[in-house]
Design brief:
With 242 residues, the chain is α/β, with parallel strands linked by helices. It contains ten helices and seven strands. The chain starts with a helix and ends in an 8-residue tail after the last helix.
C-alpha cells in the first residue's frame, strides 16, 4: 500500500510555478547520472521521484504503489524497457503517463510501438522539454488550472554520479572477456552516458563497440580502447568532458 507521504503527495494540486506538484514519477533508469538529471527536473517541477535501476527493481516498486508517471529507459541490465512499457500501458489501473527514453536515435519508434505515450531523447536536461512532455499526456484534471511560463533552464547532474557510472562500465568490461550481449549492453549504457556528459569521443567509441557486437565482429580492440579512455577519465587526466 502507498505510504503516508505518497497519499499526501496525491492531495497536492499543481501550480503555475510547480506544474507537476502532487505527482509521483517512477524513473526506470540504470544510469545514476541520467537519473540525477531527471531528479533535478522533478524537483524543479514539484514532482516526487522514485528510482528503479532494472526491470526487477521496477516490479518491486510497482507491487506496492502506482506512480502517475513512469519514465522507462529502453536499455536495462536485465531486459528491454519496451517490455515494461507494454505492461504499464495495459495494466489496470493504467499508469497515466508512460514515457520511453534512450540516447539511441532509433529507440523512439520502439518505445511508441510498445505503447508509450511519448519519448524523451537523452540527454534530458531541459526543464521546458521535460515539463511539456509530461503535461501533454496528463489527464486534464491533473494539469495546472492557470497557464505557466516555463523557464528556459537546464540542469547539471552531480559529477560524482557520472564517476560512479563510468566505474560501473569499466567493471563490466574488465570482468574477464564479456560476451557480445554484455558488451552490447555496456556500449549502449556508455553511449547514452557520454552523450549526456558531452563527450563525443567516448560516445563514438561506444557506438563502434555496439555496432561490432551487432554485426558479430571482433570486439577485443574496442573494449581495450574504451577501457583506456575510462581509466583516463577516472584518474583525472582530463578535468572535464569534451
Amino acid at each position: 500500500m502507498p505510504d503516508e507521504l505518497e497519499n499526501f503527495m496525491q492531495t497536492q494540486r499543481p501550480t503555475a510555478e510547480r506544474p507537476l506538484l502532487g505527482l509521483t514519477v517512477l524513473v526506470v533508469e540504470d544510469s545514476r547520472f541520467a537519473c540525477e538529471a531527471i531528479r533535478l527536473l522533478c524537483l524543479r517541477s514539484g514532482a516526487r521521484i522514485r528510482r528503479a535501476d532494472s526491470l526487477r527493481s521496477a516490479a518491486r516498486h510497482l507491487s506496492v504503489y502506482r506512480p502517475v508517471v513512469a519514465i522507462v529507459d529502453l536499455g536495462l541490465p536485465d531486459g528491454s524497457g519496451a517490455d515494461l512499457i507494454r505492461k504499464l500501458v495495459t495494466a489496470v489501473p493504467r499508469v497515466s503517463v508512460v514515457l520511453g527514453t534512450s540516447g539511441d536515435n532509433n529507440a523512439q519508434s520502439i518505445a511508441l510501438q510498445a505503447g508509450a505515450d511519448g519519448f524523451l531523447e537523452k540527454p534530458i536536461v531541459s526543464l521546458a522539454a521535460f515539463q511539456s512532455q509530461v503535461l501533454r499526456h496528463l489527464p486534464r484534471s491533473r494539469r495546472p488550472t492557470r497557464p505557466h511560463r516555463v523557464p528556459d533552464d537546464t540542469v547539471s547532474p552531480d559529477p560524482l554520479a557520472l564517476r560512479e557510472d563510468l566505474s560501473h562500465v569499466r567493471e563490466i568490461l574488465q570482468d574477464g572477456a564479456p560476451d557480445d550481449d554484455i558488451a552490447a549492453y555496456a556500449a549502449q549504457f556508455l553511449g547514452g552516458l557520454a552523450r549526456l556528459a558531452g563527450d563525443p569521443s567516448l560516445e563514438c567509441a561506444a557506438r563502434q563497440l555496439e555496432e561490432h557486437c551487432r554485426l558479430g565482429e571482433p570486439i577485443r580492440r574496442d573494449i581495450r580502447k574504451i577501457s583506456d579512455m575510462l581509466q583516463s577519465h577516472l584518474q583525472g587526466e582530463r578535468a572535464a568532458f569534451g
